[in-house]
Amino acid sequence: AYLELTKPRITALLLLVAAASFLLARPGTPDWGGLLALAGCLWLLAAGLFAINHFQERELDARMLRTRSRPLPAGRLRPAEALGFGVGLSLLALACTTLRFGWVAGGVALFTLASYLLVYTPLKPRTPYHAFLGAASGATPPLLGWAAATGSLSPAAMLLGAVLFLWQFPHFLAIGTLYAGDYRAAGVRVLPAERPARSRGVLVGSQVLLVLASFATVPAGLSRPAYLGGAGLLGALYLAVGWLAVRRGRPRDFRLLVLASVLYLAALFLLLLALRA
């Protein structure tokens, strides 16, 4: 039950993005010790954040068919146990990140926790545009990876953060479309349930911006020109899946889009590593 609180599949994807950013920021012989330390600190951060989020949303989760089997609404853990687990991991993450990588990385970790838990989560029942704030906290793994490698942030780091920021909109709008009725019943305001036409426009528009941002890594000096061919192919396939989902509006097409978005992000950062400048 404790492992489930940490959302291991999402955490694994964030670890991949942060690790790739760490390696991109420091060309040459990889610092395997630093990379291992980053993975440990980021796991603590993500696990602690998600555990506290489970505590915050336990009543909402109990009202949603999709989430009522989670450890707290299902009664497999007590709220105090989840909260204590999450706070302990979060404090360890802040200490680990700051002591090992410095104040810039520690500041990124603190921003991630504060913005997600104190801003994004409380706004879910209040506005359908909470995802814009959630995307800001969700975009920090590349920044954390870069700061861990260099002790600072740069325009190139911000570009990688922008890629992850934009990626979240088609991914989570697809999920919101699939479970719009569930969210509405639980009192969570999501754009697909309240403004479906606008949601579809944001989904496709953010996909286009995401693909364009992925191309910008070449002029930013992060990747070689050969990368553009692979990124273009990945982007075309991803855009096609998104366009078909919006065009047809079938649940199975949006499920395919959710899967495609995960595969796209992982493949894009692996391609960046393979063809880094």
Largest sheet: none
Rough shape? Answer: globular
Amino-to-carboxy terminus distance: 43 Å
Give the number of helices: 14
What does this structure look like?
- This protein is an all-alpha fold.
- It folds into 2 domains: 1-150, Orthogonal Bundle (Tetracycline Repressor, domain 2); 154-277, Up-down Bundle (Four Helix Bundle (Hemerythrin (Met), subunit A)), CATH 1.20.120.
- 79% of the residues lie in helices and 0% in strands.
- The chain has 14 helices and no strands.
- The protein has helices at residues 2-5, 8-25, 32-56, 58-63, 79-101, 103-123, 130-138, 140-150, 155-178, 180-186, 191-194, 196-215, 227-248, 251-274.
- Helix 7 (130-138) crosses helix 9 (155-178), helix 9 packs antiparallel against helix 12 (196-215) and helix 9 runs antiparallel to helix 14.
- It starts with a helix and ends with a helix.
- The mean pLDDT is 94.
SSE layout and pairings?
Blueprint lengths: L1 H4 L2 H18 L6 H25 L1 H6 L15 H23 L1 H21 L6 H9 L1 H11 L4 H24 L1 H7 L4 H4 L1 H20 L11 H22 L2 H24 L3
Helix pairs in contact: 2-3, 2-8, 2-14, 3-5, 3-6, 3-8, 5-6, 6-7, 6-8, 7-9, 8-9, 9-12, 9-14, 12-13, 13-14
Overview in brief:
The chain is an all-alpha fold and 277 residues long. The protein contains 14 helices and no strands.
Name a few traits of the molecule.
277 residues; mainly alpha; Tetracycline Repressor, domain 2; Four Helix Bundle (Hemerythrin (Met), subunit A); 2 domains; 14 helices; 0% strand
